[in-house]
């Protein structure tokens, strides 16, 4: 059950760390020091050091904070009165060993290691529930039984893929809830390091848009600020815009064609010429509030590349390693006399082997926290309904993605349950919502609604849930809540010839 | 946590099937069997990558929502994100009010490149250069920004297409002469005149950037080893999957290509010919027009000269016309088969059409003729022979099948038809009037003749011998007696007296019975007259019988 071995985190290591006091001169990349963050001392790792006008600047990543909060700081914010942690001398080697060990310990030993920090969500259930549970999950069977060294890492990679298979297969068979958690946790735990780069690149060639590769995602943010539409935005993550723009203080992005410019004059010239007023595709949905445009990555390569570059600024795990051809992009816009302003989008594989109905999803930061994410998700499920399929978003989710999805799932499931049926199967819930049964189950569990009483499972509409629903209804009376109206969707699932669906050019 | 684990083990839950029906209950309907709140802490996989799952803000948000799920009062927790601020740029200056929403959903397929005009966008430096160039020019020949960008775009694109690997192999910047030689339709005449002025600027810019494109471009794969580790290389192409090559596939493809090529060629031919035709038509029109004009001139001339009469040359000559009209039908069939051809003699083409009924009758006649010849042939074979076997195979009907009938001058009670056989007797015989020489002929038939169509004619009868030597009397032309002649009571009396129509009465006859044998012998032995005589006798007998009863079917007389 995936004890959160901190050894797997790039931050924090269980191995005895070298500690000591440092001076500005001895600070180097990899050092972890306490840094003043919003009036609070936080441990942070130095990822990069730059000299600007003779002053050293440090790019730091705060432990237990998302990377989007990484920042350049000046020396005075680093607290040198406290001991710093020195990076391990042969880090990659050490790390690998540590990882393997921890994994093996998870796999075979029932005793959690002492130095592990207890965390919410971790429990020793896996150890408490013996083979009987794991026999259900195919992926669990071939777990390496001996704590080996590095030589075991390969077999772990195998385990990983099988666990993934197992968890996708769970949809249609009997599910032991705890096993699901087990398997998922195992999959998750195994994920980060066991994917070799080669494997991942090969996988990405044929499906998916998300990377779990550490080198891929742990990059220093490269752009300073961007200007788009009526907003100035601070990028969150690295994005492979042409390297020239990293030197600019501001990068200008055209709101309609998403082209990027380093110089204001160029941007103004571009604006004088650009005639695009909406995403260059077919409008497939329109209501009073928003429009959706469907764009084929193969046909609108420039636009979709531009879109991906922007979204990479805000999605850590998105990969731009391969081209945009096998994806469709659904762009959500608000309209006014200026045109259709891009608010958010999601991409979707033309043919997802894993049954994902969504690859990447992004509400542009300037439009976040206004309920647009929910509309995007609702729309993606509306498309799945039209296709007659169940869908789930591609993993890994980001933190914001997870919260957004949980909120959407909860609302959807509760809405269905509140319609007043006296009994229901998980499959029915799934069919009504186009959510996978796994997602339904997880939502129910998450809300503490799935209970076991008198020898059988029941769904409990808890008081908290009912109360929250009532409150929401009250709120809706005051302020109109926007929803997707299926009637307004003019869309047939696009059919692609084998040639255009394959991953070639 | 350990407690939860223990509890989990103790209250081991049964497996939950997604197909299992679950009751939906309210909280007060459920007993609180498990008061351990820890047991309800969801242990769901989040889908967030493990290393990020522990992040402080996410955990705070998750535990807040969990607390809310169990009914706690928690303020909504947001994950902090870097700020976005309203831009200092004036939006209205950059974007204009141009959008009017169409009533229907937008359909759009132009690409970004289609909508952006010239790809190159001027920098402030270009501005300075441009104004310096314009200073030297007269007011009428100033280079505006669009022209400048057009030229720059042309230079950039030409350099890109001629030296696609300039970045890699340090190729020298293209010279102006080279550029000039590449002028094509992508650069307008008005822009070309500025090319020479702009070229030095472009070259210096280009040199400064190491002969790279002036507008920064994305880094695509170059095939170098460093590509894979370079984070700026993006949007790689996915390698083409190898298609297995076999000879069969090759042949197939080449066949396909050939066919495609041929079809395209055909289409092209067609279009070319249409074009030719239209050109000819145009020529004809031109000639006609010329002719008309010439004639008008002639007319004027004639008028002015006072020449009267002889207007023959002002109209197309009749015979000429005829010739053309005659010529057309000859050509027609070759040219257009789709059109109904008008006949040269002007007769409606409909008259030419063959009626279906005609064809059918003709066919029928032919069949009948065939049958007749067969019958004659058969007769010829059988000439002088009589089938005397005890149970002869059904012989072919003899000619004049109905000739065995003789007219009866009697009126009979109505008889319903015994059975309507599909063999239709020769109908054209004027029954009753038969070749006298054949009148007595014994005819063999294998089925009762149809009585259709004889009801109105004179009644007649005949005798025939069936299989097993049954002797039968056939009648036809039995007319209904006048209704008033029928005594209703009598009719009523016999209403249910007759046999079922389908049932042919069977008589048990022992063929080896002496009496029967003798009888048969007597039949065979007798001459025609005897047979005729016998028939007359039987007829008499029958008549006597019929007068009393309503016979349902031809009764065997033996």
TrEMBL record, chain A:
It catalyses: (2E)-butenoyl-CoA + L-lysyl-[protein] = N(6)-(2E)-butenoyl-L-lysyl-[protein] + CoA + H(+); L-lysyl-[protein] + acetyl-CoA = N(6)-acetyl-L-lysyl-[protein] + CoA + H(+); L-lysyl-[histone] + acetyl-CoA = N(6)-acetyl-L-lysyl-[histone] + CoA + H(+); 2-hydroxyisobutanoyl-CoA + L-lysyl-[protein] = N(6)-(2-hydroxyisobutanoyl)-L-lysyl-[protein] + CoA + H(+). It holds the Pfam family Tudor-knot. GO terms for biological process: DNA repair; DNA-templated transcription elongation; positive regulation of macroautophagy; positive regulation of transcription elongation by RNA polymerase II; positive regulation of triglyceride biosynthetic process; rDNA heterochromatin formation; regulation of cell cycle. Keywords: Acetylation, Activator, Chromatin regulator, DNA damage, DNA repair, Nucleus, Transcription, Transcription regulation, Transferase. Transmembrane segments: none annotated. It is an enzyme of class 2 (transferase). Residues 218-493 form the MYST-type HAT domain. The active site is at residue 394. GO terms for cellular component: NuA4 histone acetyltransferase complex; nucleosome; nucleus; piccolo histone acetyltransferase complex. It comes from the Eukaryota. It is found in: Nucleus. Residues 79-96 have a biased composition (Basic and acidic residues). Gene3D superfamilies: 2.30.30.140, 3.40.630.30, N-acetyl transferase-like, Winged helix-like DNA-binding domain superfamily/Winged helix DNA-binding domain. Belongs to the MYST (SAS/MOZ) family. Component of the NuA4 histone acetyltransferase complex. This is Histone acetyltransferase ESA1.
Automatic annotation (TrEMBL), chain B:
Residues 250-277 form a coiled coil. Residues 309-345, 534-558 are annotated as: Disordered. Residues 12-157 form the Enhancer of polycomb-like N-terminal domain. It comes from the Eukaryota. GO terms for molecular function: transferase activity. It is found in: Nucleus. GO terms for cellular component: NuA4 histone acetyltransferase complex; nucleus. Component of the NuA4 histone acetyltransferase complex which is involved in transcriptional activation of selected genes principally by acetylation of nucleosomal histone H4 and H2A. The NuA4 complex is also involved in DNA repair. Involved in gene silencing by neighboring heterochromatin, blockage of the silencing spreading along the chromosome, and required for cell cycle progression through G2/M. Belongs to the enhancer of polycomb family. This is Enhancer of polycomb-like protein.
């Amino acid at each position: 059950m995936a004890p959160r071995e901190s050894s797997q985190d790039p931050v924090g290591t269980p191995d005895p760390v070298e500690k000591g006091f440092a001076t500005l001169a001895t600070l180097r990349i990899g050092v972890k020091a306490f840094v003043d963050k919003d009036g609070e001392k936080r441990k942070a790792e130095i990822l990069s050091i730059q000299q600007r006008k003779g002053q050293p600047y440090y790019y730091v990543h705060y432990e237990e904070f998302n990377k989007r909060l990484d920042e350049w700081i000046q020396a005075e914010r680093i607290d040198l009165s406290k001991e710093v942690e020195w990076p391990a001398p042969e880090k990659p080697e050490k790390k690998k060993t540590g990882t393997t060990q921890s994994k093996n310990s998870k796999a075979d030993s029932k005793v959690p290691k002492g130095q592990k920090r207890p965390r919410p969500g971790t429990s020793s259930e896996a150890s408490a529930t013996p083979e009987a549970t794991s026999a259900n999950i195919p992926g669990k069977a071939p777990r390496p039984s001996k704590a080996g060294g590095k030589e075991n890492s390969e077999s772990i990679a195998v385990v990983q893929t099988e666990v993934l298979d197992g968890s996708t297969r769970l949809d249609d068979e009997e599910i032991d809830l705890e096993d699901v958690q087990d398997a998922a946790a195992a999959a998750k735990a195994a994920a980060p390091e066991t994917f070799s780069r080669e494997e991942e690149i090969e996988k990405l060639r044929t499906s998916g848009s998300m990377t779990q590769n550490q080198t891929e995602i742990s990059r220093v943010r490269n752009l300073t600020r961007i200007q788009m539409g009526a907003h100035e935005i601070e990028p969150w993550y690295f994005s492979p815009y042409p390297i020239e723009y990293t030197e600019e203080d501001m990068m200008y992005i055209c709101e309609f064609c998403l082209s990027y410019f380093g110089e204001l004059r160029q941007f103004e010239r571009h604006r004088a010429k650009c005639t695009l007023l909406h995403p260059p595709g077919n409008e497939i949905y329109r209501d009073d509030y928003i429009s959706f445009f469907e764009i084929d990555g193969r046909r609108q390569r420039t636009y979709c590349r531009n879109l991906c570059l922007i979204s990479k600024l805000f999605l850590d795990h998105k990969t731009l390693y391969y081209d945009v051809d096998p994806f469709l992009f659904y762009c959500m816009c608000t309209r006014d006399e200026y045109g259709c302003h891009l608010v958010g989008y999601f991409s979707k594989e033309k043919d997802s082997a894993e049954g994902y109905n969504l690859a990447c999803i992004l509400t542009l930061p300037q439009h976040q926290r206004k309920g647009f994410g929910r509309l995007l998700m609702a729309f993606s499920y509306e498309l799945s309904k039209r296709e007659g399929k169940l869908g789930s978003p591609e993993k890994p989710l980001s933190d914001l993605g997870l919260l957004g999805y949980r909120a959407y799932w909860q609302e959807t499931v509760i809405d269905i349950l509140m319609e007043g049926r006296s009994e229901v199967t998980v499959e029915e819930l799934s069919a009504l919502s186009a959510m996978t049964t796994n997602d339904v189950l997880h939502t129910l569990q998450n809300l503490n609604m799935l209970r076991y009483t008198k020898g059988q499972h029941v769904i409990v509409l808890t008081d908290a849930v009912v109360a929250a629903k009532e409150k929401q209804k009250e709120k809706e009376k005051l302020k109109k809540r926007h929803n997707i109206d299926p009637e307004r969707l003019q869309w047939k699932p696009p059919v692609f010839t084998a040639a255009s669906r394959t991953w070639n050019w | 946590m350990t407690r939860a684990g223990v509890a989990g083990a103790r209250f081991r839950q049964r497996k939950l099937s997604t197909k299992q029906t679950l009751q939906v209950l309210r909280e007060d309907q459920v007993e609180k069997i498990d008061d351990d709140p820890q047991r309800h802490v969801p242990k769901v996989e989040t889908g967030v990558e493990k290393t990020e799952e522990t992040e402080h803000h996410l955990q705070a948000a998750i535990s807040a929502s969990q607390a809310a799920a169990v009914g706690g009062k928690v303020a909504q927790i947001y994950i902090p994100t870097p700020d976005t601020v309203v831009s200092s740029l004036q939006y209205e200056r950059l974007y204009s009010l141009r959008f009017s929403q169409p009533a229907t959903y937008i359909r759009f397929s132009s690409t970004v490149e289609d909508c952006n005009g010239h790809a190159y966008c001027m920098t402030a430096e270009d501005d300075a250069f441009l104004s310096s160039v314009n200073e030297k020019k007269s007011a009428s020949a100033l280079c505006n920004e669009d022209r400048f960008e057009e030229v720059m775009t042309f230079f950039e694109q030409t350099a890109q297409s001629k030296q696609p690997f300039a970045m890699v192999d340090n190729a020298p910047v293209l010279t102006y002469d080279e550029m000039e030689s590449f002028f094509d339709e992508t650069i307008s005449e008005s822009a070309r005149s500025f090319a020479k002025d702009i070229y030095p600027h472009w070259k210096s810019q280009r040199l400064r950037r190491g002969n790279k494109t002036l507008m920064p471009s994305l880094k695509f794969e170059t095939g170098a080893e460093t590509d894979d580790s370079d984070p700026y290389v993006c949007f790689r192409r996915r390698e083409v999957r190898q298609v297995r090559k076999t000879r069969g596939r090759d042949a197939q493809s080449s066949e396909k290509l050939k066919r495609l090529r041929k079809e395209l060629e055909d289409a092209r031919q067609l279009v070319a010919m249409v074009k030719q035709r239209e050109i000819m038509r145009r020529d004809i029109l031109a000639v006609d027009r010329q002719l008309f004009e010439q004639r008008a001139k002639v007319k004027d001339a004639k008028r002015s000269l006072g020449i009267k009469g002889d207007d023959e040359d002002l109209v197309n000559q009749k015979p000429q016309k005829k010739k053309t009209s005659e010529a057309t039908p000859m050509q027609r069939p070759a040219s257009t088969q789709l059109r109904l051809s008008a006949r040269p003699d002007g007769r409606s083409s409909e008259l030419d059409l063959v009626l279906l009924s005609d064809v059918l009758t003709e066919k029928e006649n032919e069949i009948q003729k065939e049958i007749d010849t067969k019958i004659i042939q058969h007769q010829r074979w059988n000439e002088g022979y009589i089938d005397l076997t005890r149970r002869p195979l059904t012989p072919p009907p003899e000619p004049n099948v109905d000739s065995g009938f003789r007219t009866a001058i009697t009126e009979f009670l109505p008889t319903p038809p015994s059975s309507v056989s599909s063999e239709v007797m020769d109908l054209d015989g004027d029954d009753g009037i038969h070749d006298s020489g054949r009148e007595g002929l014994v005819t063999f038939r294998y089925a009762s003749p149809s009585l259709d169509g004889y009801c109105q004619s004179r009644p007649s009868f005949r005798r025939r011998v069936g299989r097993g030597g049954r002797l039968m009397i056939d009648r036809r032309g039995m007319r209904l007696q006048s209704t008033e002649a029928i005594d209703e009571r009598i009719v009523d009396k016999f209403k249910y007296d007759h046999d079922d129509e389908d049932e042919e009465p069977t008589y048990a006859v022992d063929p080896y019975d002496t009496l029967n044998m003798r009888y048969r012998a007597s039949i065979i032995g007798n001459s025609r007259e005897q047979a005729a005589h016998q028939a007359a006798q039987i007829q008499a007998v029958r008549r006597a019988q019929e007068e009393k009863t309503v016979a349902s079917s031809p009764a065997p007389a033996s």
